[in-house]
Design goal:
Elements (H helix, E strand, L loop, with lengths): L10 E3 L9 E11 L6 E11 L3 E3 L1 H9 L8 H16 L3 E11 L2 E10 L13
Antiparallel strand pairs: 1-4, 2-3, 3-5, 5-6
Length: 129
């Protein structure tokens, strides 16, 4: 196989660092293992961020997400770990990671973790008529 799962997140320079704008990435096929049973857990991971100087390179993000396939992780821990790793890689102005986990035993779990760079203020939302 030419590519393998990897925890290495790559970045590239933001072409518009003077502007606040939002990047959204949806990953509907996230899998990890239940740390109690070893059974697979399936989720959608949603990433939203306002980059500063760096952006996350998508292929490395895909391989990073793939790296969780054989790892046992509680939903809360894995969602926060993804946020921590992404913040460490690209130091965004703002980042939100949402893990929407599929039903297990009649229970759905959603976990939302956020990072805000010190001093950054979100721009006002514009409501158009």
């Amino acid at each position: 196989m030419s590519t393998l799962p990897s925890k290495q997140l790559e970045t590239f320079e933001n072409a518009r660092p003077e502007r606040d704008y939002t990047i959204r990435i949806d990953t509907p096929e996230f899998t990890c293992l239940c740390p109690k049973t070893g059974q697979p857990d399936f989720a959608e991971i949603k990433l939203e961020y306002v980059p500063d100087k760096l952006c996350v390179e998508l292929k490395s993000f895909k391989l990073y997400i793939w790296s969780y396939r054989d790892e046992g992780a509680f939903h809360e821990k894995v969602t926060n770990q993804i946020l921590d790793d992404l913040v460490a890689a690209c130091e965004p102005r703002f980042m939100r990671v949402t893990g929407i986990f599929n039903v297990r035993g009649g229970v759905y779990t959603s976990v939302v973790a956020e990072h805000r760079k010190a001093g950054w203020v979100a721009p006002e939302k514009v409501a158009l008529p």
